[in-house]
Structures are given as C-alpha cells and as structure tokens.
Amino acid sequence: MRILIFTGKGGVGKTSVAAATAVKAASQGYKTLIMSTDPAHSLADSFDREDFLGPEPKEIAPNLDALEIDIYADLRQNWENVRVHFASLLNSQGVNGVVADEIAVLPGMDELFSLVRIKRYYKSQAYDLLIVDCAPTGETLRLLSLPETLSWGIKLFRNAEKFLVKPVLRPLSKVTPLSKMVAPEDVYVSIDSMFGELDGLSAILGDTKVTSVRLVMNPEKMVIKESQRALTYLGMYGMMVDTVVVNRILPVDKDTGYMNRWKSIQQKHLHEIADSFNPLPIRHVPFYPQEVVGLELLKQMADDIYGVEDATKFMFTERPYEIRKVGAGYEVRMRLPFANEDTLDLWHKGDELIVQVGNQRRIVTLPTAVAGMETGQADFDGQWLIIPFTTSGKTASVAGAH
Ligand SMILES: Nc1ncnc2c1ncn2[C@@H]1O[C@H](COP(=O)(O)OP(=O)(O)O)[C@@H](O)[C@H]1O
Ligand SMILES: [Mg+2]
To answer: Is there an atom of ligand 1 within 6 Å of 42 CB?
Structure first.
C-alpha cells in the first residue's frame, strides 16, 4: 500500500488538495481511502457530503472511500480507564478535580489515535492508497515525534508508581492511601496495547518506498517560512517530501482588479519557493473563482496538479538535504551534482543557511538547535556538500573558494 500525507499551515488548501488527489487516484484505478486527522474536519464539506462521513470508511465514488476520525470517541473507547486512573492519582496529590480530569488526557493522546489508524489500514492492505489529510504543520510534527515522547512519559508514570508504593519512600505515601496509587491491571493492559499498536509505525512512515509527504502552501511570506521549517523537521523525523503544491495562484495574464498588486507579490514569493524547495518538484494550482467543493471541482483541481500523471507516483526520491548529529555538533549535507568549490557560496544567518551555486540558490531553514551554532569549513565529499556546525567554529567558508 502507498501512503500519501498532506500537510501545511492552516487554511492553505490541504484538505482540498488531498481530496483532489484522492479523486484523481481513484479514477486512475487505485482503491483509495482518504482519512482526515485534523480535529477541524472539512473533508465532508470538501466532498459536499456533510451528513455522510464518520469514523468508518464510506464510499464517496467508485474506488474512493473516506472517513473522519472522531478522536474523542476513540479516546473514550481506548483510554478511559487510563484517564480515570491518572486523574485520581493527580487528585490524590491535591490537584483539584476538574483540572486533574483535564490534564489526565496526556498531551497528544488524541492525535495518537490517528496514528494507530494509519497502521491499522496499512496492515489490513485493503486499499492501494491511503491519503492522510493532516492537521496543520505544527500539530503534525508533534504527532510524528509522539511515540517516543509518550513512551518516555509512560515510563515515567510507571516508575513513579513503583516509587510511590514503596513504603520506604514515605513522604508521599503518607499523604496518599497506597491502594489509590497502584493502577488496576487493565490500565497497564490499555497502555501496553496502545504501544503495541504504535510499534512499527515510524518504520512505515519512514519507509521511502511506502510513504511520502506533500507540502501544501500559498505564495505568502509566513506560509513559506512555516513550510520551510516543516521540510527541515520532516526530514529529521525520517519522512520524505516528494512534492510541493503551491495553491491559490492568481493568473498573471488576466486583469484581477484590485488584486493586481497581489499578483506581483505572489510572483516574488514563487521565486522564493523555487529557491527554498529546490530540487523538489513544485506544482502550481490557480486561485479558482469559487470554493473547491464537490467531485467536479476537485477533479478540475486534480487535473491542474497532476494532468495525466499517476498521482500516486513518487515525484522525487531524495531528501533535498540532511541534518545529522556529529559529536557535539551537526552537519548539513546536500547533494549538488553540478557544483564545485569555485562556483559555490555560503551564507549563514540566524536560522537560514543559503547555498548559492552559479545562479541557483538553496535555502535551508535550520532547526533551533543548529541555528545558534557556527559554520565550520564546508567541504565536498564526491557530489555531497558537507557543512559542519559547531558551538565554536569559524564563519562560513568554502574550502578552496576565493
Ligand atoms: N485554489 C483554490 N481556489 C479557490 N478556493 C480554494 C482553493 N483552494 C482551497 N480553496 C477553498 O479554501 C477553503 C480552505 O481550503 P481547505 O482545503 O479546507 O484548507 P485547509 O485544509 O488547509 O485548512 C475551502 O473553502 C476551499 O474550497
Ligand atoms: Mg483542512
């Protein structure tokens, strides 16, 4: 099964582009399931089937099923006993009832259940293609780092419990009746089954023969910046972006009245997008004169994005750059097949690293941990440019460059 994940800042057109892709792939003969994990669902609106979508797959068109996860229902079903236990634990430590209830749902728990669904459908192999319409970028990224974060949290809870029930560690057990501290067995069963279900998910999402991410954006400054950051972090989490979809582009050859000024702004940003996401393929989608709702308009959008191409194809199979930890520092690596030391220039300022090769430019948004470091001597290893980052280094320079 193939997995396509659509993400981007809120409102850029993720759901529309994901739904359009689903319509296209289904018409190309792939048995497709599209699933929305964004708590702000709009898949049903996009298909114009308001009263129709629920947490189980429903047929929208031949070859095309859709569902919207009800994260709260999933949470109640799978996690209620755990939540009750944690709440009483917090309560016994003096946290008041309502607050205890609220914080007993661990951060990210809701999103975790979406992840479980991805794995479930992947394992069932009932579909050729799973399209995931994800929450806005920030949420999605948090979601991807979730399994590790959570297993750490759960370990902490387990250890804390062991800690608390030991009579030697009297200060807390004095305040709290011991019976309240020990979790009933079913709590552990729920926790363990959850982690059992999540096991192997990172491998599926990081499998570059199965999963790729498509970043949806608009030609607007803030949106571009957030998408650049998303590209960096997705790479760090082991995911591969294979296409950039730039949505809502005003037509340059038509008079758009007072939006005319917007057109030149957009054109400027389109150049920046080309630099920032080079060498990823970039697809342009026009600003339509109406909302993209219903199968007909989605099909139109899909034609504008993919034409006659296979929508499920891996449009690109390499990460534009990689950021690796090396000792106490980091290393940014990018493959520049046609570059040599003489045609190359580097700048690093704040979280931006700019690499210029002839008249081509690459912009890398550095993760926070790396942004504060200094660049050392950049060097080529075959086709790969390697730029080291250390806490105390020299300013950006290229070996052998003038
Ligand atoms: N290219 C476009 N032209 C016109 N309207 C669009 C376009 N792309 C999206 N829309 C409309 O913009 C709104 C938000 O799009 P949506 O796909 O729900 O964004 P997101 O999922 O990123 O929040 C919807 O009403 C959608 O129909
Ligand atoms: Mg949406």
So the answer is: yes
